[in-house]
Target: Agmatine deiminase family protein
Amino acid sequence: MTNASLRLPAEWEPQSAVLIAWPNADTDWADRLGDVEETYIALVAAITRFQPALIIVSDDDVQAYARARLSSARIDMDRVRFVDAPYDDTWLRDSGPITLADADGFRLLDFRFTGWGGKFDASQDDLLVERLHEAGTFLKSSRQSIDFALEGGAIDVDGAGTLLTTWQCLHERHPDASREDLSAKLANWLRQDRVLWLDHGYLEGDDTDAHVDTLVRFAAQDAIVYQGCDDPSDSHYAELQAMAAELAALRTRDGQPYRLFALPWAKPIVDDGRRLAASYANFLIVNGAVLMPSYGDPVDPQAVAVLQEAFPDREIVSVPCRPLIWQNGSLHCITMQLPAGLV
Model:
């Protein structure tokens, strides 16, 4: 494995599995466990249509229960594998491995996970990559521990050296660092040569400080999908319109404007007086498909149509994710894709 040839694959490149952690009574899902289990069952059913699912469980009882629920849903259990490890919660996008690859194997980047800047206890989740690696979960891999707070949901890459992120999140985690300093560090660790920053965009009910995966995603090296807002009366309108203008001003490596795909805006979803972050941009790309969070909103089918236009060669599969946004995240947030050959 040579530093020069390491690269961070785009999410649309071939995968070996999707990594998730099963919700249980010891996680923050405890109060609504039944509802969120239904989402996880639907998610595993969707993943295993296309590739394996690797499910972290906290003990044998949780594994037995998850296996029984998935089997009863007639999921292809030959495509389900369980691995034991303790965890605080199930947001694998932020506590799971960010994986560099080259012709000889993989490097698992193990950044600090601080519970989104100390908002929640994350002592077990911060050890998750190390524990999974030591357990032999991953093939042909080494682990690089990096004493720097970075969540997987805070970045998106095109697989060819361009990284997209938001200033709000990285500045919140590292208030004393300049944009130039942060760009240099991200480019070095993640093997990028372009770092594109967004200064606008947020969602009420999001406690990640504007993770880019709730707002803007690469669909190809020349295409970007983003969460739009076409309701001038909505509190998000000005910020998301400003974000759309920022995206229109970005240029590809070849100096061309990106092809932009605006996702529709769902009606406000409020829980106990608190607005929840229902973003269609929090989709997951798997082998041959895009799994899209749906919220039971009339524009769900419109979001499917936008993603089908952005990903014409992939099937778009809706996964009901309304229970997830109660805990301030959605489908992409609870998953981490693993590149082909890693498991």
Observations:
- The mean pLDDT is 96.
- Residues 33-48 form the longest helix (16 residues).
